[in-house]
Amino acid sequence: MKAKHQRLILALVALVALIGAGLLAASALKDEAAYFYAPHDVKTKGVEPGKAIRLGGMVVKGSLKRASDGVTVHFDVTDGKATVPASFKGITPDLFREGSGVVAEGAFDVGGTFQATNLLAKHDERYMPRELEGMQYDEKSHKMKVDR
Amino acid sequence: MHRFANPARFLKIARPLTVWLFWPGLILLLIGAGCGLFVTPADYLQGDTVRILYIHVPAAWLGMGGWTGIAVAALMQLVWRHPLAAIAGRAIAVPGAFFTAICLITGSIWGRPTWGTWWEWDGRMTSMLVLFFLYLGYIALGNASARQGNGGGVSPVTAIFGLVGAINIPIINRSVVWWNSLHQGPSITLRGSSIDTALLWPLGLTLLGFTLLFAAIVLMRMRAILAQNKVEARMQRLARG
Lengths: 148, 241
Hints:
By secondary structure, chain A is α+β, with helices and mostly antiparallel strands.
């Protein structure tokens, strides 16, 4: 075996070991490195009230209500598997709206409502001109379709 | 590839190739950026903020592509002992770090109006910042190895660092899939794009333009390192008299 081939095999073995180690580390980090809890995670793992977490998901359509004081909003957050109620007092980001993604920082109160201290709007991967609003990206055909 | 091991033969091709990469790259970039700013419609949700993607996406692609290039050069240096691979690795590092910085900065500027924050420690942003720090480390090691000889290229240890650092590239790519992240998932996949064609097409121009420019910068830096080697060799000969 030539020295060149020895080096090639050594480098490839090292590379495979490295990628394996990286993937193992990444999969072990799966939960720890998550930026936020989805409502389903909250339900299955049981986050105790008062513990500061981030809650992320979609704002349920028709759930967004503004309280009479004008600055408090109540809304439901869902990930398709579970839904939790949340409320926030303050100025909401421009992109915060029903049917759109949100990441809220805060904690659950004893009643099970998420009391957010800060709201971040989460953008999804769809980009389109204004004329196409109301259309949805179809995962199967990879075309834009009217969402009605 | 060993046909180009001779610097004279490499320079004979690299010199005209630099010109042919640089100018078309610059023209494509300017057309793409101009169309992205003035021709394409605004996004339905983000409005005009969306236009930053014509810079942000190519910068991210080149930041990650640059390190992939460093890893390939490292493999060629360590396995095949290709004499130009060590120089290529060192030449890629600075523009790679530069584009990674552009990606981080434009992302931050976009994040403020879109998400409502300049910076969050989510998987995508953190792994991209790690890439930037890896570049800084590689540049420092590369400069140190060039001072100690190594023919103006990176030392074998630096090449190993480049190879090990490549593990971060698939992590960046998958970070939005593996972990809940604030950064949205991939828009452009092998199966199609969820960016509407009306918004997508200038991205192709800037992506190609930036890539050609990146290649031109790498060739220029490789030529500069080779010229520096020549100067040093001549100085040594003169000193010996």
